[in-house]
Design brief:
Helices cover 21% and strands 13% of the residues. A hairpin with a 4-residue loop joins strand 3 and strand 4 (102-103). Helix 3 packs antiparallel against helix 7, helix 3 packs across helix 8 and helix 14 (347-355) crosses helix 16 (376-384). The radius of gyration is 28 Å and the shape is globular. The two termini are 34 Å apart.
Length: 886
């Protein structure tokens, strides 16, 4: 976090100043490690073993928060009798289809026993996410249906034979959890991860002693957990750990997903993903007819109990926001106009298809797959197969110059792709909302107009949409009605002005506050007396499914509750530590999700020190320091009557209202590679799987093997060194915004690889000298950074070396160099199609590559003056002069 999210890291540092203990577990000793109280080095790809060991320590030493776990999790729920765990099947769960390399959760009996529809295993689970239903003919759920709550009648009371409050039934979740993680002993953790038993036990004790009624612990992660073929399950293990310790829904607890861009969270919310709609609604799919009509889609994907019972309100309001008056009950509110997903359009699968000639044209907006994609060489091969490519960016990146500057490509005369480069506006030259890690929307105000022909992304998309609508205006073809009926009225009412009061010179810029108001939502049957337009809703509780409301993203509802009040643009600082008037946190400006869990089942704070929300028995409502994430008037002692549906089916003591039973799930039948996390080695690893020797890597991983994507399957002897990629503070991602900046380039001028002194000595590699790194995909060169920041690990009795590779260099910019992403593989985990760039196998040698090295494509900026700054040492002068000054 100190290296990759340095602005946000101010808060952990402030917490440390107030007595917090910071723990860093990472393969490399980094800037983060240097300021933490505890650092533990582990082998990349062994995270589930480490976290699983922590879960085992919590359970076997009785350190779990008993009252919290019994009341707020599914620990007592009994699982179907036919379920078999990895402990029973030597590393596999029941329901595995070896022909499809996928699990069928229903065949595997993953669901709750006798539970109606809640906790029901999804039908026909598959490694291909929703795309399996198109490619394999398999039927099943996607979206929220994977929680096991679709296709059935309202759930029955979760009582009687379905739960065991004593937690003694061998088929209850707690007993399954104990058996599953029993083999993750401190000694096994040490042997798999490479840390010492003492290091591991110190972390376990710190977590346990800092959790409970009086104290909470927060876990933060970034791409070091995400970019694995077990990434979803790594994060699931952390969720299990936090639920056991009582650290969810409480101040100072939770799990923070540290985003790598300023609004990655917002891109997910409003949905740039191919298989979801805004607000985490599933994209309709073309497979077995269950998404043919709006009613069948709602029945198949909605829920009968819990917060998702309002699914129909969210999708109908979305359709009204998109299609306006053209969306009516008679035409299913235009539901047929939404494109159906008929194949896997996730980025990895799509570029694999592109590399094989299956894609005609492509738009790239602020993305650089030619330099930043896993197995970037395959991505460039895909771009070379296109007929046309549109690139919107600040600079001519690798994705704009692949046709002429890629040193590994054929001559440009042989490349057919026509590239259109659209100069984009910089961040300070455009406005809009940014949603960060904590779901906080903050408005970004424009400071000045972009120069020359540069335009904002919004300008390009808005005007492209206008031109397309004009082009098809006379069409009567049914397939064109989705475009023609699309609401597209975001013009400014008057020419916008810059902060200095001068009119903007840019014509056609959309008013993004109008877009935010559409996302917020309107009451179409009411007129605001001040604006003369449909009244803005105050929150998603106002949404209806009768066509009287329009809302572009239900989770953002409330961000613009009245004309002139953009809550994302509010910046009021008060003594309230939750800062409720600084930006807007979705949903409903709640700062801590599921904060009902901060009080005990009777509604009293677990402790005075950690109180957040509580039940006020005199007012008969929930109150607190944060806005309660619970029905305000639902008493803690409320019990659902038999057959209850919707929120009426959620007990007053069940905080996790978006789950069908209101509980936190220690065991989840909706995860495609198993209801519980299991340690598997990375697909490429020099080692076998010590915990489950019959199954080296995740059996549900998706492969894209071919001549451009060779895989060295574990265990591999040809590539005995573990590699992991990482970021530097001085550069940004694959370098598009930093390798064109002379000042940043001075700070980090050249591609390098970190390796231990022991590995350097073995391979005769000299610090500062050249070395090569090769994988099954390719070979690169780098300067050697011989450092104690990396150390050898003793794993299974043998020494395993690891290297670290920054992924910021390629062949475009003021500085250029070999690309670490040319080494990584195209692989996809089964849940979210994530690659595995944080753990792969390689070989290293001393020396350089043969042939022509890439040359800069842009000249470095000249300093305005070379005169030295008075009274400043030579080493601190703008030109640097390190090594030459005094």
């Amino acid at each position: 976090m100190a290296e990759a999210q340095p602005v946000g890291f101010r808060w952990p540092m402030e917490a440390k100043e107030k007595g917090a203990t910071l723990i860093h577990v990472d393969p490399r000793f980094t800037r983060m490690s240097a300021v933490c109280d505890v650092y533990v080095g582990i082998r990349s790809g062994s995270d589930i073993a480490f976290l699983g060991g922590l879960v085992n320590c919590v359970l076997s030493n009785d350190r779990w928060f008993h009252e919290y776990v019994l009341a707020y999790t599914n620990a007592s729920t009994i699982i179907d009798e036919g379920f078999r765990d990895t402990e029973d099947l030597a590393g596999l769960f029941s329901g595995f289809d070896a022909q499809d390399d996928a699990y069928d959760a229903q065949q595997g009996h993953w669901g709750y026993e006798g539970s109606g529809d809640c906790g029901r295993a999804p039908e026909g689970g598959s490694k291909h996410s929703s795309q399996a239903k198109y490619t394999k003919g398999r039927h099943g759920l996607h979206g929220h249906g994977i929680d096991g709550n679709a296709e059935a009648s309202p759930s029955e009371d979760m009582a009687g034979e379905t739960v065991d409050p004593t937690l003694q039934n061998p088929r209850c979740v707690m007993q399954i959890l104990r058996r599953h993680f029993a083999r993750y002993t401190p000694e096994v953790v040490s042997e798999v991860c490479g840390c010492t038993v003492e290091e591991f036990l110190r972390v376990a004790e710190l977590l346990c002693s800092n959790s409970g009624r009086e104290r909470t612990t927060c876990i933060a992660y970034a791409l070091g957990w995400t970019q694995h073929t077990t990434g979803v399950q790594i994060i699931r293990t952390a969720g299990i750990l936090q639920l056991l310790l009582g650290n969810v829904g409480r101040p100072g607890g939770g799990i923070m997903a540290l985003r790598g861009h300023s609004t990655i969270q917002g891109a997910t919310d409003v949905s740039t993903l191919y298989d979801t709609l805004p607000g985490y609604l599933p994209q309709p799919a073309a497979y077995d007819g269950t998404h043919e009509t709006l009613s069948s889609y709602i029945e198949h994907e909605g829920m009968h109990t819990g917060g998702w019972v309002n699914f129909s309100k969210y999708i109908v309001s979305l359709l009204k926001a998109w299609y306006g008056d053209a969306a009516t009950p008679d035409n299913d509110f235009g539901f047929s106009w939404i494109p159906r997903v008929d194949a896997d359009y996730s980025a990895l699968a799509y570029f694999d298809r592109m590399s094989k000639g299956g894609v005609k044209g492509y738009f790239l907006t602020g993305q650089n797959p030619a330099g930043g994609g896993p197995n970037a060489g395959l991505h460039r091969a895909g771009l070379r197969n296109l007929e046309w490519l549109v690139v919107l960016d600040w600079f001519e990146t690798e994705s704009a110059l692949f046709w002429k500057n890629d040193p590994t490509a054929p001559p440009s005369s042989e490349i057919k792709t026509e590239v259109f480069f659209i100069p984009a506006a910089a961040a300070q030259e455009k406005e809009g909302s940014l949603t960060n890690t904590q779901r906080l929307l903050q408005w970004h105000n424009k400071a000045l107009d972009p120069s020359g022909d540069c335009r904002s992304d919004a300008w390009f998309l808005y005007n492209l949409g206008k031109r397309l609508k004009q082009l098809y205006a006379s069409s009567t073809d049914p397939k064109d009605q989705a475009l023609l009926n699309l609401t597209w009225n975001y013009d400014f009412d008057e020419q916008p002005r810059l902060p200095d009061g001068t009119p903007s010179r840019i014509e056609g810029e959309p008013d993004l506050e109008k877009v935010l108001m559409e996302l917020n939502g309107h009451r179409l049957d009411e007129t605001d007396p001040h604006s003369g337009r449909p009244r803005l809703v105050s929150g998603f509780s106002e949404l209806k499914d009768d066509g009287s409301t329009a809302c572009g993203c239900w989770v953002y509802s409330g961000v613009f509750p009245e004309p002139g009040r953009n809550r994302a643009n509010e910046r009021k600082i008060t003594d309230d530590p939750f800062a409720p008037e600084w930006g807007f946190a979705w949903p409903n400006n709640i700062r801590v999700l599921y904060n009902r869990a901060s009080a005990d089942p009777e509604g009293r704070p677990w402790s005075e020190r950690k109180k957040l929300v509580w039940w006020d028995s005199e007012k008969r409502r929930w109150v607190g320091l944060d806005k309660p994430d619970f029905e305000l008037d639902k008493a803690p002692d409320y019990k659902p009557p038999p057959g209850a549906t919707g929120m009426a089916a959620i007990a007053g003591s069940h905080p996790f209202t978006m789950k069908c039973d209101g509980l936190g799930w220690l065991y989840s039948p909706g995860i495609k590679d198993g209801p519980l996390p299991t340690h598997y080695e990375p697909v490429e690893s020099p080692l076998g799987n010590l915990l489950y020797p019959k199954h080296e890597s995740n059996p549900t991983v998706r492969f894209f093997e071919g001549p451009l994507n060779h895989i060295a399957h574990a265990p591999t002897t040809d590539y005995p060194v573990v590699a992991t990629t990482f970021r530097l503070t001085e550069h940004y991602l694959s370098g598009p915004m930093s390798r064109f900046n002379s000042w940043l380039n001075e700070l980090q001028p050249e591609m390098f690889a970190e390796l231990s002194p022991e590995l350097a000595a073995e391979r005769n590699i000299v610090h500062g000298g050249w070395m090569t790194i090769r994988t099954a995909r390719g070979r690169i060169e780098a300067r050697a950074m011989v450092t104690r920041r990396l150390r050898p690990f003793v794993v299974e009795g043998r020494v395993v070396h690891q290297i670290g590779l920054p992924f910021h260099w390629a062949f475009a910019g003021e500085i250029v160099g070999s690309n670490a992403n040319d080494l990584t593989a195209l692989l996809a985990d089964p849940n979210v199609s994530m690659h595995e760039s944080k753990a792969f196998a390689c070989q290293v040698d001393a020396g350089r590559l043969e042939g022509h090295a890439p040359q800069p494509t842009v000249a470095a900026a000249r300093w305005p003056t070379l005169d030295p700054i008075p009274d400043t040492p030579a080493s601190a002068q703008p030109e640097g002069k390190l090594g030459h000054g005094k």
